[in-house]
Amino acid sequence: MSQVVKTEQEEMKQKLLDLVKKHKGEKGALIPVLHEAQQLYGYLPIEVQETIAEELDIPLTEVYGVATFYSQFTLKPKGKYKIGVCLGTACYVRGSQQIVDRLCEELGIAIGETTEDGKFTVEATRCVGACGLAPVLMVNEDVYGRLVEDDIPKILEKY
Length: 159
Known about the structure:
Layout: H1 2-23, H2 30-41, H3 46-56, H4 60-69, E1 81-86, H5 89-93, H6 96-107, E2 120-125, E3 137-139, E4 142-144, H7 152-157
Helix pairs in contact: 1-2, 1-3, 2-3, 3-4
């Protein structure tokens, strides 16, 4: 079993090295490398950041700084189902905070956290462009609108 895991880890590391090599020497290579590395791993663990810094010959602090500055990058694994609750003005005035509170209560996590089983991550988002359906939440690409707190358990059951 450990040999299989090690082989998978080695394979992932080689893919990371290949993608860094593909961008090495390009101006502004760090952001595309971080994007591709995050697609590969699902997030940017410190080991990945260290490899990127070493291979691009830039300080680890620069890699970490970029990874933590831009909201599309994450240093923690995300759940299989990413739940984004809109807290934009229209949704907020129609009760999205209560939706977030109920969601976090049902899952036993706070905004920005992932359930222990790796199934759900809850995030606060801004306008998703569905103001007429306020309050709105998205589970990956699925949109749920005109929500009330009691809708949350039924939505979670689907996943």
